[in-house]
Amino acid sequence: MPGKIDHIGLVAPRDKFDEVVAWYKKVLAPLKYDELRRYPGVVGLGADGIPDFWITARDGPLQSEIHLAFRAPDHATVDAFYNAAIEAGSTDNGKPGLRPQYHPNYYAAYVVDPLGNNFELVHHGNCSNNQ
């Protein structure tokens, strides 16, 4: 089992729901993510047939900013994620590159999603601190 996170959920304002779902589908495509489940006001994205990233529509103002970090299998996937996110209209929050302040092989890119959240894709490389 590669990771310990079972699933992550985000809440989007109902009027931005379709935009947010489309954005995440595009930027997670380098990880082979796709829409796997859809219920009224809820979409489950994932790879290998298992939805582990859920987006739910809600009414009213929402005020929560979070940091999301997904693992990538290699640097090329981090680069592809960043390019897809910028093409999808994201704001750059850290171009792809090494972040040795975390550990010597920490290669990541950061963008801001349509809700204002910091979204990261990281490849840890060969590192004993692979968390």
From TrEMBL:
Specify the domain of life of the species encoding this protein: Eukaryota
Enumerate the PROSITE patterns for this protein: VOC
Domain VOC: where? 4-124
Name of this chain's protein = VOC domain-containing protein
Species for this entry? Elaphomyces granulatus
